[in-house]
Design goal:
Blueprint: H1 25-35, E1 60-63, H2 74-83, H3 94-103, H4 112-115, E2 117-118, E3 128-132, E4 140-145, E5 151-155, H5 158-184, H6 188-192, H7 196-208, H8 213-226, H9 228-255, H10 261-264, H11 282-296, H12 303-317, H13 319-330, E6 345-348, E7 367-368, E8 372-377, H14 382-396, E9 405-409, E10 420-424, E11 430-431, E12 435-442, E13 445-452, E14 461-463, E15 467-473, E16 479-487, E17 489-495, E18 498-501, E19 503-511, E20 522-531, E21 534-542, E22 545-553, H15 563-569, H16 578-585, E23 592-598, E24 602-607, E25 623-624, E26 651-653, E27 657-660, E28 667-669, H17 681-695, H18 700-712, H19 715-719, H20 721-728, H21 736-750, H22 768-790, H23 792-801, H24 828-838, H25 857-872, H26 876-879, H27 891-895, E29 900-901, E30 919-922
Parallel strand pairs: 5-12, 6-28, 11-29, 16-25
Antiparallel strand pairs: 1-2, 1-30, 3-4, 4-5, 7-21, 8-20, 9-10, 9-27, 10-30, 12-13, 13-14, 14-15, 15-23, 16-17, 16-22, 17-18, 19-20, 20-21, 21-22, 23-24, 24-26
Amino acid sequence: MPRLTPRNLLDRMRTPGALPGFLKTASVCTLIAGLLSPLAPAAAAPTAQAAVADHCGGHCSDILPPGQNGNATLAQILLNQAFGSMPAHASDQLGPYAKLATGYPALTEATLSTFFNDASFGVPADQVASTVRPAGRTDVTIVRDKKTGVPHITGTTRYGTEFGAGYAAAEDRLWLMDVFRHVGRGQLTSFAGGAPANQGLEQEFWRNAPYTEAELQAQIDNAVARNGERGRQAMADVTAYIDGVNAYIDASDSGRYFPGEYVLTGHKDSVTNAGTIEHFKPTDMVALASVIGALFGSGGGGEVNNALSLLAAQQRYGVAEGTEVWESFRMRNDPEAVLTVHDGSFPYAGRPATPQGRALPDAGSVVREPLVYDRTGSASGSSAANASTAAAREAVSSARRGMSNALVVSGEHTASGHPIAVFGPQTGYFAPQLLMLQEIQGPGLSARGASFAGLSMYVELGRGQDYAWSATTSGQDIIDTYAVELCQDDHHYLYRGTCTPMEKVERKNAWQPTTADSTPAGSYTMRVWRTKYGPVEYRATVGGKKVAYTTLRTSFLHEADSIIGFQMLNDPDRVKDPASFQSAVQHINYTFNWFYADSEHTAYYNSGDNPLRATDVDAEFPVWARQAYEWQGWDPTANTATYTPASAHPHSVDQDYYISWNNKQAEDYAAAPWGEGSVHRGDLLDDRVRRLVAAGGVTRTALVKAMAEAALTDLRAEDVLPGLLEVITSTPVSDPAAAAAVTKLQAWLSAGGRRTETSAGSKTYAHADAIRILDAWWPLLVKAEFAPGLGAELYTAMTANLPVDESPSAAHGPTGAHAGSSFQYGWWSYVDKDIRAVLDKPVKGPLAHEYCGGGSLGACRDALLTTLKEAAGRTAAQVYPGDDQCAAGDQWCADAIVHRTLGGIRHGKTGWQNRPTYQQVVEFTSHR
């Protein structure tokens, strides 16, 4: 069956055929002619910015595709749909970003600016495109540069500065901000249409954060109250920011240059201007933060799946041996795993010697808790049901959450003597982008970089006057599953000995067809049952007792808390060195790896509210909801607990180098995702940076090249294929088809195992046959290697914990196929360790058994050869079956990145790269 990429929000507007039939070219031109005048607000005459202390010396660069401008009027959308024309700065960063894939081999210091933009503070006088005083204010200006249109906000008062930040955010991302505040509230379908993917999106996020309006407000109040003067300042900043957003809404509404999506989704009338764009309010910021936190900053979960695979292992091997088999696949603390922090031990969430309180389900009793009720109209169809199933699977999975990478080298090993960093978040590809760029300068604020749209009162990832910072998703476990024993009926449970009613929280949504989304009318109710121990995710029995499995995360009811950390990062008087940086990011309660570089030092810190669990509670599995097994110091009303101290979090200063690609942070620090073993995509960075550091004299160019090469490398080819070929060639290969396949794979491996075009723009891979063979072979060889030994039931259960493959062309991750991010989750470590064991090579932390061929080299070779011949015989059309983006057999297109439309502007495909969406290249030359 052809794979389908998600078609949510306004994906249906991506082709002219999705527009109403009467909007043919001639009538489009007529309509556009009547709409062209109100395209943009009036701008003041260009003026230069006042100079701000900038210690980067011209050595700070960044890039964020597709472009800064994420708003488009109705006229601009229609022009784009009819003729492919682009609003200014909507796509001007896409080309340079994409071209690095073919341009990096010849990269020099002089040509870095071909692929990255200057990220210095300010705008030279001859590069000023416009200067705006939003709402006529005299205490803030927004200057935009000619090249990229990035807003440079300068204020003389704190209020004015934040007002300008809000105004600029709305100028660039108003529609996207509106979309995601509705996603966070579980109201996307009512706002943007009932497309099945829209249904799935709102269900996925609201299941994790089913807040009432009062709870959203309480989170603001609590964050302010707990943080004294900084809390009060944060509230003032949010108020000013929202005032700026709303000022732009009013101005664009009266001037009729608001985003055209409001017309296409029925919120505004293109002729009379009737309709309303709702003002933003502070609780919208919390709803937005809950989406971002769930996507990138909430590690853990999956305990019920873990329990099911453990039970399957025990059923096959017996309790003792089955447990050891399970643990060997879990790889909680694998001695061969690549680490971000090279020295020291940071024990967290390890395996207790005598686990207490486990509540494993009875065989066959687990049922996922339904979320959607009372379906009507188009909500009752099979596509809607499938979207709900997929959303539920994503919401409770601990996998597919990690993104982003970082390469940081100490000045001791660079040519200049100053640290160098190439880092950024891997947040997927959207149009408009989830992130937006800005520079913000005002009292207590001095930074440039990226922020999530609607949360840009501060720069969240970027640079200050003499330091830069970035983050990767860390994924350590801050989510636990509790088995609450039911009493009286299915909606009462025992809480500390008292039969207590569950709380019902509902969201009722209904939609009608619009120009943007022709999905027929429909409606449904989302219903979550909540307990003190979190929302109900599953029902089951444990030892014959009826239970509900709930999930509790430390950031639940605390979506607003991280604002203090981001505020500090933007304050030049607060962050001055590694110690003050680490102190600032300790105020961020989401799970991230934070990296820092200035002209003299580098630093790292792992953030997140890690709960201090009860003695001998195993975080991998559900535990009984009893006081003895609760988090230490847990207050169920506020959902606060005793957390591990800062000293227990992995941290470091001035290590020779740091890398992170969502790999294991440090020794003894067990992260929630599976797959942190001997082969991880972090190895692609670590191997290259380690070689650079050993040679010395590292430059910005060299570090960018290392990142870019890793971004094009097939992890399976570089780190696993050599062992597979060693087994196969242990005896001469006589079969002609198999021999030909081996020769092609060896040639590709000798060329570097990269998925690269024959030449820029060819859209054809070099070594295309070898890539096709490995893509077809990998799932076949994994099954042939492990399924006979594990048995069908256990093999299936293990693949639910960790998918077999995540190649670029696989329909993987939270955004489906064409998502860029690849090779994080797969069975590479299992295959690597097992093949080395069969070859009698040393293996630290081996699997409990040898699986390939039952441990026989000859039988293993036979299994690999049989599957290799099958893979080599599969055509490109079979391996790459096509989807709504690509024809069957189009290998390059199957890998290609697609910027998923969250608005009315569409962008072309770009070649695959496995790299951050927003990326900085920094080397500070001086310090305050």
